[in-house]
Structure formats: structure tokens, C-alpha cells
Amino acid sequence: MHTPDTPEAAPRKSRLVEAAEAFMAITLALMVIAVFSNVVLRYAFDTGLVIYEELSRLLFVWLVCIGTIVAAAEDKHLAFTLVVDRLGPRMLRHCRRLASALGLAILGMIAKGAWDQVLAGMHSFSPVMGYPLALGSAAILLMAAVMMILLLKEAAPLFGFHR
């Protein structure tokens, strides 16, 4: 029995979301160490490590993309619902179909652009660390692909597809 005084147990997160959150925590810790070390080196010793700049830039891209996936999986993206909250059930269903179709189209364009950048970056390498520049675009490609899958799963009932 749930009363206002008893805390309700939070639903268990999937192992994939937990792994993504652990990845984000490690990535953030590495970024903080790299950037803080560089700041100390620059101000105290008038030098810096260029490798830390490249590393923190790459880690930031992956952190943002994985964070976006986690937010989508947990349905935590911001939504402006002022208009749709006032719609009737039938019009709401049409708006959700339209929003899903537009979302899939936009994610498809993002995925296509990211794929093109992955192909272009396969033979280009970062100047200091030497990693393929495709790694940054791969994060965006992964983000778009996973978000398309999540959106398809969410929108399937709107279009008459059931499990």
C-alpha cells in the first residue's frame, strides 16, 4: 500500500541504460581530469598538453550523444505540450503520428549526414592523437540509429502495429 509518507520504489533501469550511465560518468571524469590538468599546466607552467584538448573534445561528443540516447530511452526529453494537451483524442492521435513521422525523417537525415561523415573521416586522422575522425561522427550515427529504433517502438501502436 502506498501512502504519501512511504517512498515509492523507482522502476529498475535496464542494464543497457545502467551501462550507458556508467560510460557517461567515466567519460565525464576523464574530461574533468583532462581539462583541469590542462588548466593547471597552462597557468602554473605556461604549457599544456594538446592531446588533452583532442581527448576532451571527442569524449564530449560521445557524452552528449549517449546522454541523448539515455534521455530518449527514459522519456526525459523536454516537450512543449501546451497545444496538444488541449486536443481531443482523435486529433491528438493525428498529431502524434505526424510528430513521429517528422521525428523519423529528421533522425534519418541526421543518420545519413553522420554516415557520410563517418565515410569521409575513415581516412582522416586527428593531428595529435591520430584517431580516425570518423569516431566523432560515429557517436552521432549511433545516437540517430538508436533514437530511430526507440521512436519506431513508441510509434508502432499509433500506426496500427502491435507486438
TrEMBL record:
GO terms for cellular component: plasma membrane. It comes from Castellaniella ginsengisoli. Belongs to the TRAP transporter small permease family. This is TRAP transporter small permease protein. The keyword Transport applies. The complex comprises the extracytoplasmic solute receptor protein and the two transmembrane proteins. It holds the Pfam family DctQ. It is a multi-pass membrane protein. One of its GO terms (biological process) is C4-dicarboxylate transport. InterPro entries: DctQ (IPR055348), TRAP_DctQ (IPR007387). It is found in: Cell inner membrane. The keyword Ribosomal protein does not apply. The chain crosses the membrane at residues 22-43, 94-111, 131-152. Residues 31-155 form the Tripartite ATP-independent periplasmic transporters DctQ component domain. Part of the tripartite ATP-independent periplasmic (TRAP) transport system. Keywords: Cell inner membrane, Cell membrane, Membrane, Transmembrane, Transmembrane helix, Transport. One of its GO terms (molecular function) is transmembrane transporter activity.
